[in-house]
Design a protein that fits this description.
Strand content: 15-25%
Low-confidence stretches: 364-373
CATH class of the largest domain: Alpha Beta
Shape: elongated
Structural class: alpha/beta
CATH topology of the largest domain: Rossmann fold
Mean pLDDT: 83
Number of helices: 12
Strand order of the largest sheet: 6-5-8-9-10-7-11
Largest sheet: 7 strands, mixed
Number of domains: 3
CATH architecture of the largest domain: 3-Layer(aba) Sandwich
Distance between the termini: 60 Å
Length: 373
């Protein structure tokens, strides 16, 4: 029996504290926030203290402490628990992002996301490009046994580069949809500082993907790191630290490949496939318009004229053209027709709309985040 300690009478024995934690995109579970479990394992008593993370009070991670009269029993219990954490983790097979907590501690929070369900028809790229990326990111894992038998490594790195708005993030979403059962960890912005944690999670929860968005933003940034080297080098070191047989794919995206090229060349072998996602050609712009207007009866001629007139633009502008056509028709109280699409082209391709095009990732040399991909 656990007896009340007389040294601290102000802290009486009480029921455990509970809290609700997410275990999926739309699911929560009640878990112990602070409590002691008294159990017996193989005839040996164990006391297990479970305590939630509390960054507000300087405790960035959850704690589990085990007390037993036989140290070997406590060690064996923790060993089994570590295995269970890997094989039965609520994170396994999920799509999650790591985020900085509001108290600025070194720990990262986890946000669950729905796995995208895009088909190849939803991704408009030059012919053969999507298959090339998909085979390397996803297809390779499907032949794991054959690769291992021939002594080839599974760990792989993919760099998707190109102007903003061309479809890099959209391509990643397709890869996520194709890799059901794979654990996906997404890092972007300040959360790229958690690359070491992400790599450890990926190793434990493989098969895994680690998505590193807009890596050019940290190419020379030391503000998040713990040493003199740029954070990008920490990313590359984390990639190199995994075993060759780790079924982990690192997918990096960037709008500024020139910011990464020198660093990647200094650490060869981390990225073994670099793919440019270019501005869409006329046939791809037509396909994008058809994709975004699949519920609208624009004529083939209007689609063709619009595609010809929008050279140098991206998928985000094609999407905006269709939206503006629908809005114009609604304001006029009419059905959406070719005239509304062509009017939207006149409006967005005019010289006065240069800044708008730039904000949509088209018609300029602006380097920023992928918008509306």
């Amino acid at each position: 029996m656990l007896q009340q300690a007389q040294l601290f009478p102000q802290f009486p024995l009480a029921q455990p504290d509970y809290t609700n934690l997410a275990i999926g995109p739309n699911e929560q579970r009640q878990v112990v926030a602070l409590g002691i479990r008294l159990i017996t394992r193989s005839g040996v008593p164990l006391a297990v203290l479970q305590r939630e993370a509390s960054p507000r009070f300087g405790r960035p991670t959850a704690l589990l402490e085990v007390l037993s009269p036989e140290p070997s029993a406590a060690a064996e219990f923790l060993s089994v628990l570590r295995t269970q954490l890997q094989t039965r983790s609520v994170l396994k097979g999920q799509v999650v992002s790591l985020t900085m907590d509001e108290y600025g501690s070194s720990g990262a929070g986890v946000t669950f996301h729905e796995r995208p369900s895009l088909t190849a028809a939803d991704v408009i790229l030059p012919e053969g490009l999507l298959d090339k990326v998909s085979d390397h990111a996803v297809g390779m894992a499907e032949h794991r046994k054959q690769l291992e038998a021939l002594g080839q490594h599974l760990k792989r790195g993919i760099l998707l580069y190109g102007p903003p708005g061309t479809g890099k993030t959209h391509t990643v979403r397709y890869l996520l949809g194709r890799s059901k059962g794979t654990t996906a960890i997404i890092l972007s912005g300040g959360s790229l500082a958690y690359i070491a944690e992400a790599a450890r999670m990926a190793r434990a929860l493989q098969p895994s993907m680690v998505i590193l968005e807009d890596c050019d933003l940290i190419a020379e940034d030391r503000s998040f790191g713990h040493g003199p080297q740029p954070l990008l080098f920490e990313v590359l070191d984390a990639m190199d630290g995994l075993d060759d047989d780790a079924d982990v794919a690192f997918i990096l995206t960037t709008n500024r490949v020139d910011m990464l090229e020198r660093a990647l060349a200094q650490r060869p072998g981390r990225v073994d496939l670099a793919v440019e996602i270019p501005l869409p050609e006329v046939q791809e712009r037509a396909a994008l318009l058809e994709l975004y207007a699949r519920e609208i009866a624009f004529s083939a001629e209007a689609i063709s004229v619009t595609a010809e007139r929008t050279a140098g633009t991206t998928a985000s502008l094609a999407k905006e053209l269709v939206r503006r056509a629908v809005v114009a028709a609604a304001l006029a109280g009419a059905d959406v027709a070719d005239e509304h699409l062509l009017s939207a082209v006149d409006e967005l391709m005019a010289d006065s709309a240069a800044l708008t095009r730039s904000l949509l990732g088209s018609g300029g040399d602006r380097h920023g985040l992928d918008i509306a991909e």
